[in-house]
Amino acid sequence: MRNNVDVLVIGAGPSGTISAAMLKKAGLSVQIVEKVKFPRFVIGESLLPRCIESLDAAGLLDAIKKKNFQEKTGAKLVLDGKICDFKFAQQYTKGWDHAYQVQRADFDKALADACEEKGIPVQYETEVVDIKFNTDGSSITTVKFLDGTTQQINAKFIVDGSGYGRVIPTLFGLNKPSTQYTRKAVFAHLKDPYRNEHDEPDRITIYVHNHNTWIWVIPFSTGTTSLGFVSSPEFFEKYSGSLTEKYKQMIDSEPDIKSRFRDFEMIWDEPKILQGWSATTDTFYGNGYVLTGNVTEFLDPVFSSGVTLASVSAQRAAELVIKHFKGEKVDWDKDYVKFMQTGIDVFRVFVNGWYDGTLFKIFFAENPDEDMRNKICSVLAGYVWDETNPFVSKSEKMVSTLAKFIEASSLKP
Ligand SMILES: Cc1cc2nc3c(=O)[nH]c(=O)nc-3n(C[C@H](O)[C@H](O)[C@H](O)COP(=O)(O)OP(=O)(O)OC[C@H]3O[C@@H](n4cnc5c(N)ncnc54)[C@H](O)[C@@H]3O)c2cc1C
Fold first, then answer.
1. Is 58 exposed, middle or buried (0-12, 13-18, 19+ CB in 10 A)?
2. Distance between CA 159 and CA 186 in Å, rounded?
3. Residue 33 CB less than 6 A away from ligand 1
């Protein structure tokens, strides 16, 4: 492991590896430190087309293509038997027409391995426990190994891509409560022999179970599928027995899911639970550091925005760090914080519109307007920085006006 580097990257998730690969390509010396051993489980299996652009820019796309992950060409939404089908090939923004459905353990390992192949050391089982910043922005980071011993790393700059670890906001008291309501997810990977009956597997399906509860179905190329339930914590209290028994009762409560997973073969010992994931921070950067990915803000999983925001923030952060090292002036507020907030805020409008039911009126309208549909599809593909799309530049107004228009039209005799 290096003791002196230009840039220390914390975390080997998508945001850490994309930043590291871009920085290395620009000739900077980079070291990634990662708390756990890879492959490791992390949630975030449905990707959006926009993140493919960042993987490509970082020179990491070929490593992903080689892994034969399931291609994702769109998303199907289901409410009370009504279907809303988004196909990325039919979208407004000129962008990628597909993404991937990935087991994140394999996806993240492929990215980290590709970084190593590019000559970036990835130090696993190495946890950042302390950072001291000097007035010039350089820093001394203390890392702890599994045996309890520690070591210090001098860096001129730090990229914090520690995801749910939130290293810098936690060490420096920068965490801020999210305005999102606390939600919980219960999920597992299952065998999925009847997927063909459901016109799968090259897209994900989201079922609206009730107005506060939704179900994700993410098929993988291996024949297994990720199936998860998301709701308020109270929703899960009505089920009884072991966690697996509760999960089976949830499956049986949605007819389509019950039929598709009728043989119920889970490939894990038991389902996993996550709760209260929304988080944000006072600042996305500081003297000598930048936060990327989930460390900036994570809203909600419903539109699969997490890895895309992680990838785009990593790309943008790396581009600005490179500028900084060239001695050029960087306007972090405008070119990083404002840029990222623009994309996050578009997703925020959609997330809020999902949970308050506004979007259901649009998604499940009788005769959808094709142009509107294509513009919404681009948001769902992650193209949330395309200001020519009114669902980006005026997202709140467009969503509420369109929903009201559809409602009023449906009331006409
Ligand atoms: C229920 C749920 C479902 C989701 N579904 C989706 C989805 O379908 N699609 C999607 O795009 N997103 C989804 N997400 C979001 C997704 O999980 C994250 O947005 C994404 O993983 C963020 O990537 P990252 O690189 O920022 O962080 P991570 O992927 O979390 O990587 C951070 C890495 O940093 C390491 N680390 C942490 N602390 C330290 C430390 N002290 N020292 C060194 N290393 C450290 C961790 O071990 C980890 O490997 C979902 C989230 C939830 C809660």
1. buried
2. 31
3. yes
For residues 110 and 30, state if they share a domain.
yes
**Domain final residue pick, 224, 243, 275:** 275
Give residue 243 CA to ligand 1 midpoint distance, Å: 24
- Tell me the per-residue pLDDT of 15-34, one tens digit each, with 9 for 90 and over: 999 999 999 999 999 999 99
Task: Give the atom of ligand 1 at the shortest distance from the alpha carbon of 313.
Answer: 26
In contact, 301 and 230? CB cutoff 8 Å = yes
Distance in angstroms (rounded) separating the CA atoms of residues 15 and 211:
32
105 with 163, same domain: the answer is: yes
Are residue 39 and residue 160 in the same domain, yes or no? yes
| Cβ atoms of residues 291 and 168 within 8 Å | yes
Q: Which H or E run includes 219?
A: strand 213-219
Report phi then psi at 65, rounded to 5.
-60, -35
Residue 351 pLDDT > 90 = yes
d(CA 91, CA 73): 11
- Whether 10 is in the pocket of ligand 1, judged by its Cβ within 6 Å, is yes
Q: What is the mean pLDDT of the chain?
A: 96
- Asked which of 219, 254, 275 is the last residue of a domain, the reply is 275
Pocket flag, ligand 1, residue 42 (CB < 6 Å)? yes
Residue nearest (by alpha carbon) to ligand 1 atom 6: 44
DSSP reduced 3-state for 179: coil
8 A C-beta contact, residue 243 and residue 186: yes
Alpha-carbon distance of 168 to 391, in angstroms, equals 33
In a domain, 86, yes or no: no
**What is the residue range of 190's domain?**
184-275
User: Is residue 78 left, alpha or beta, with left meaning phi > 0 and alpha meaning psi from -120 to 50?
Assistant: beta
Exposure class string for 368-396: b at 16+ Cβ within 10 A, else e: eeeebbbbbbbbbbbbbbbeebebbeebe
Q: Would residue 399 count as lying in a domain?
A: yes
For 200-237, how does the pLDDT look when each residue is reduced to its tens digit (9 = 90+)? 789 999 999 988 899 999 999 999 999 999 999 999 99
Say yes or no to pLDDT of 199 above 80. no
Cβ of 161 closer than 6 Å to ligand 1, yes or no, is yes
Tally of domains in the chain:
3
pLDDT of residue 235: 96
Q: Outline where 326-369 has alpha helix (H).
A: 332, 339-355, 358-363
Q: Are residues 158 and 303 in the same domain?
A: yes
Ligand 1 centroid, distance to 408 Cα (angstroms): 41
